[in-house]
Amino acid sequence: MRENESVAKRLIVNADDFGRSAGVNEGVLAAHAGGIVTSSTVMVLEPSAARGIREAAEKAPRISLGLHFTLTGGGAPASAARDVPTLAPGGVFPRRREDLPEVLPADEVRRELEAQIGVFQVLARKLPSHLDCHHHVSLHPSVEPVVAAVARKYSLPVRGATPDALARLRAAGVRTPDRFVDRFYGESAGFETLAEILESLPEGTTELMCHPGRADERLRATSTYAAEREGEIEVLCDPAVRKILRDGGVKLIGYDAL
Fold it and tell me: Can you name the residues that pair with 190 across neighbouring β-strands?
C-alpha cells in the first residue's frame, strides 16, 4: 500500500529557488496566494533568503518551506572553505553539476548539507519541511547516499528527481512523493503543458516542479532563466488550472503533508 491511499490523487506544486532574489520571492508568494504553489525550497546561501523566509511567515504561513541544497552556482559554501576543499576549491562551488569531481568526500557533503540545514533553522526557527537539490546534485553518486542519510536523521522527505533515484531513496527508508514531474519548464511552461500534466495525473502523490519569479535585476544578472518565470506565475494563477484540479478530484498538498 502506498503512503497516499487516503486520497486518490494528491499534488505538491514546489517552487524552486526561493531566496535567490527579491523578485523570485515575490513571484513564489504570488503563485502561492493566487495560484497552485503549495511548497517552495529555499536557497539559504542567497542574499534574499532571510527576508524571504520572514515574508513567507507573515504572508503565507501555509506554504511548506524546504531546503534547496546547493553545491553549484559559483557561490560560497555555508561551511568554512577549509572544511570543504573538494566541494568548494578556492572557496566557491563550481557553476554546474557537470563540473563537480566524479568522487566527492562523503564527510564534506554531509558537513555542508548539515551546515545549510543549520542556516535554515537559524532563519526559520524550525527545520525545513523537505529537501531537494539545486541542479539536481542529489543525482551525483557521491551526494545521493549522504542526502538519504541526513534525511533519515532529521525525518525529512526528499524529492526523487528520477524514477531510479526515487526507488533508491525509498529503499533507503526515505519518504518521497510517488512521482516527480519536471516538464513544466522553459518553452514547455505554458498552460497547455500544465493542463496536460494535471489531466493525466495518476493516483498517489505527484510533485510538480516550477520556477515562478519576478525578473528583477539580480535574477537577470545571475540566471539564464529569468523572464520565463514571469510567464510561469501567470499560468500557475490561471483560474482554469484550479478547475482542472477540481474536475479531476486532485487535492493540493504541501510537502509537510507527505
Answer: none
Provide CB contacts within 8 A for 228, sequence distance 6+. Answer: 186, 189, 211
Q: Which residues of 119-148 are buried (b: 16+ CB within 10 A; e: fewer)?
A: bbeebbeeebbbbbbbbbbbebebbbbbbb
Q: What share of the chain in percent tops pLDDT 70?
A: 97
For residue 142, give Cα distances in angstroms to 19, 152, 167, 209.
26, 17, 17, 24
Question: What pLDDT is recorded for position 139?
Answer: 96
With 90 as the cut, is the pLDDT of residue 5 above it?
no
DSSP string, 131-178: EEEGGGGGGSTTTHHHHHHHHHHHT--B---SHHHHHHHHHTT----S
What does the block give as the cell for 30?
A: 504570488
The CA radius of gyration of the chain, in Å to the nearest whole number, is 17
Cα separation, 116 vs 45, whole angstroms: 8
Distances (CA, A) of 231 to 35, 186, 212: 13, 10, 8
* Three cell numbers written together for 90: 578556492
As a whole-number percent, the residues of the chain with pLDDT over 90 amount to 97
Q: Encode pLDDT of 7-45 as tens digits.
A: 699 999 999 999 999 999 999 999 999 999 999 999 999
507527505: which residue's cell?
A: 258
DSSP symbols for 172-233: TT----SEEE--SSGGG-SHHHHHHHHHT--SEEEEEEE------HHHHHH-S--HHHHHHH
Query: Which pLDDT score, from 0 to 100, does residue 79 have?
Result: 98
